[in-house]
Specification:
With 331 residues, the protein is α+β, with helices and mostly antiparallel strands. It contains 5 helices and 15 strands.
């Protein structure tokens, strides 16, 4: 007999045998509890690929002694956030795992009538950023508008993520065990026109993908595991957009760069650094046209009258118009 846990006066003869309390869950329940000396203490030799309950073996770094593998809960959970036309929302996917994680993939669904997914990254996700000596994961692939052909009708939109810690050292370059570790950051913008309190549920799903759906998977010891998943919620709020009139490029100064920002916006397909149309409306007539850069030039070089509020201080627009301000450019 080898690699067995046998309580007695002394260790039973045989390679890998131990003499200890196996810490079963209870009488008649021979599943292992956290901290059991039988966890990762078995042998790969002759071990089946699944335990008696059908769970993949090994679940951790090595095969466990006994009929059941100890598999602590693996969980992906989305955070909640507020979103507004002037304030994009940052939502994190948090990982809970009892074992090192080599890779993960998932999709996150949202209500496209309420929010738009604008970015997916690993900013403020230290466990992922630390991979490969601080260089981050070998591969981090995302899609902001994944196909929904394999999804039910109540999933109208979403994005996908696939992360591989290291292609050549997958067993050592891993996300460490831990609870509620942020592993992905998603940024959402509010769709204009929704009232205060409008909500978009967020859900971790495995149906999103342009050609083949991206599965919800966490890889541990080269074995794909399906984690528990907890959704999140985005709620629309309506704070006032804040800007400085004439500060078209959002650097809190009025100078020739603001003239260029408005001109680029007007004559280059409404592109360029103008993020707040109200800020570019230098003459406060509720329109963006050539009169606005002329108004800025007059203020800068011809001792023109001060611009209308909010100027020179940051503040909300006191004038009701149809111009949009997608983000506050000052506080």
């Amino acid at each position: 007999m080898r690699y067995s846990c046998i309580e007695g006066a002394e260790v039973f003869p045989g390679e890998g045998n131990i003499n200890a309390d196996p810490l079963f869950v209870g009488d008649g329940d021979i599943r292992l509890q956290r901290g059991s000396p039988c966890i990762d203490a078995g042998t790969f030799e002759g071990a089946p690929t699944a335990d008696i309950a059908g769970n993949a073996r090994p679940c951790g770094l090595a095969v466990d002694m006994g009929a059941f593998e100890y598999c602590p809960a693996i969980r992906l959970a989305l955070s909640h956030a507020l979103v507004a036309e002037c304030a994009p929302a940052r939502v994190f996917v948090n990982l809970t795992t009892g074992h090192p994680v080599q890779a993960f993939s998932f999709g996150v669904a949202h209500d496209s009538a309420v929010v738009t997914l604008t970015a997916i990254d690993i900013v403020n996700c230290p466990a992922v950023q630390a991979l490969n000596g601080g260089e981050g994961p070998d591969y981090f692939g995302v899609c902001l508008s994944a196909g929904t052909g394999d999804c039910p009708p109540d999933i109208p939109a979403g994005g996908t993520v696939y992360c591989l810690g290291a292609q050549t050292q997958s067993s050592t370059m891993t996300i460490p065990p831990g609870a509620d570790q942020p592993i992905t950051r998603l940024t959402y913008a509010a769709v204009p026109g929704n009232g205060n309190g409008t909500e978009s549920t967020l859900a971790i799903v495995g149906c999103l993908g342009d050609h083949v759906p991206v599965e919800v998977i966490v890889a541990i010891n080269d074995v794909p595991r399906i984690p528990d998943a907890a959704g999140g919620l985005l709620t629309v709020e309506a704070p006032e957009c804040r800007f400085i009139r004439g500060d078209a490029n959002g650097d809190r100064r009025l100078d020739i760069a603001d003239v260029m920002s408005v001109l680029i916006y007007l004559f280059d397909g409404r592109r360029g650094p103008l993020r707040c149309q109200d800020a570019g409306d230098a003459n406060d007539d509720g329109r963006l046209n050539i009169a606005d850069p002329v108004r800025i030039l007059a203020r800068l070089f011809l001792d023109g009258a001060p611009l209308d509020p909010p100027y020179p201080a940051c503040g909300p627009d006191p004038t009701l118009d149809r111009l949009e301000c997608g983000v506050s450019t000052c506080q």
